[in-house]
Design goal:
Layout: E1 12-17, E2 21-28, H1 31-40, H2 53-63, E3 76-82, H3 90-101, E4 106-113, H4 119-125, E5 132-135, H5 145-155, E6 166-169, E7 173-174, E8 184-186, E9 189-190, E10 206-212, E11 215-216, E12 223-224, E13 229-231, E14 234-236, E15 244-246, E16 253-256, E17 268-271, E18 274-275, E19 288-294, E20 298-305, E21 310-312, E22 315-317, E23 324-327, E24 334-338
Parallel strand pairs: 1-6, 3-4, 3-6, 4-5, 13-16, 21-24
Antiparallel strand pairs: 1-2, 5-7, 8-9, 8-10, 10-11, 10-12, 13-14, 15-16, 17-18, 17-19, 19-20, 21-22, 23-24
Helix pairs in contact: 2-3
Length: about 350
């Protein structure tokens, strides 16, 4: 409802796909035609019909992005919305995506819905890392309406004409929309120069991290994948005691330190099994000898480890992560410091 359809304004086309492809409508300048085509489609009772994304991209090329079917030839913004990984080989999908990208002025936005999507595949389909979006469910797509509208209005094409680019929908919180001027590695390519990269080589289970002088920077993760939780640039299986887990799905989970707004105002220190101020019974997490303590939330971040573990931003680790060096010896008070 927020795009201006008209003869000299926005034109749109739409299709659906699973293992087969269904054309809803060729390019039209009528919003009503689009709405009616979507509303009249009857979804099959058996929804386990597979996902053939590469074939869908080729279908769009051969049946929608053709002048004979209403395509004006001045570029198009193609939205590919999928809720699963393609059943085709990655090479087949990549080849189809390359054919789509080769059409002059075409820009592709890929939107993955639910945890079943393949992020690498979404990056292959899109024409830019900034064009990859995620949503936890189809209902959640409404929450990024403004982001999608921004792509439709500003992303568009390499065409030099003034005609409004066309929109193809075969279509989330974006992974990253801005990086404050710092280049990032997003998925498998950098955000500015587009060179190949992979945060996972330095920080396991990291999707987005800093990218400086052609290399990813260790322990600078800003978005984790594979249902891991972000804390201090690292991706953890679970949040340590004293931190609250936030998020759901495969991406963008993080650990949050409790705030005093929860009534956590009388902080103490737990040493061994007794607090230093009130002498009440307490117990820090595994491998932690001394930790922050709250009568409301219990054990917080660790301040001294035991069992020959290394202290790293409130955590006790068996080894320091890349970019940090181990300090200390013996069973207690080992810690990691920046290299």
């Amino acid at each position: 409802d927020r795009l201006d359809f008209g003869v000299d304004l926005v034109h749109a086309a739409a299709m659906l796909f699973n293992s087969q492809q269904t054309l809803l409508t060729h390019f039209t300048s009528s919003r009503t035609v689009i709405d009616d085509a979507v509303a009249s489609y009857s979804y099959p009772a058996n929804n386990n019909a597979g996902t053939a994304t590469g074939a869908a991209l080729d279908f769009a090329i051969n049946n929608i992005l053709q002048v004979s079917n209403g395509y004006r030839g001045n570029g198009a913004l193609v939205f590919v919305i999928t809720d699963g990984q393609s059943q085709e080989t990655s090479t087949f999908v990549a080849d189809a995506a390359a054919r789509l990208h080769a059409i002059s002025g075409v820009e592709v936005v890929s939107v993955g819905v639910t945890d079943a999507v393949d992020v690498n595949e979404l990056n292959t389909i899109s024409t830019s890392p900034e064009n990859v979006f995620l949503a936890s469910s189809f209902e959640a797509l409404i929450t990024i309406e403004n982001e999608i509208l921004l792509r439709a209005c500003n992303g568009s094409t390499s065409s030099t004409t003034t005609t409004t680019p066309q929109v193809v929908s075969t279509t989330t919180t974006p992974f990253v929309s801005t990086f404050d001027g710092v280049e990032q590695c997003v998925g498998i390519s950098s955000s500015v120069t587009g060179v190949a990269c992979n945060c996972d080589t330095e920080t396991v289970n990291c999707h987005t991290c800093s990218f400086v002088d052609g290399a990813v920077v260790p322990s600078t993760c800003s978005i984790c994948e594979s249902s891991k939780y972000l804390l201090n640039g690292e991706c953890l299986t679970s949040c340590p005691l004293g931190y609250l887990p936030n998020g759901s799905g495969s991406f963008n989970r993080y650990c949050e330190a409790p705030t005093t707004t929860t009534g956590n105002t009388n902080l103490d220190v737990c040493v061994g099994r007794t607090t230093t101020n009130t002498a009440e019974a307490c117990l820090c997490g595994a491998d932690c000898r001394t930790c922050n303590w709250s009568p409301v939330d219990g054990a917080g971040s660790c301040t001294q480890c035991k069992n020959s573990q290394y202290l790293y931003f409130g955590l006790c680790l068996s080894a320091c992560p890349d970019g940090y060096v181990p300090n200390g010896s013996g069973s207690f008070n080992r810690f990691c410091s920046a290299a």
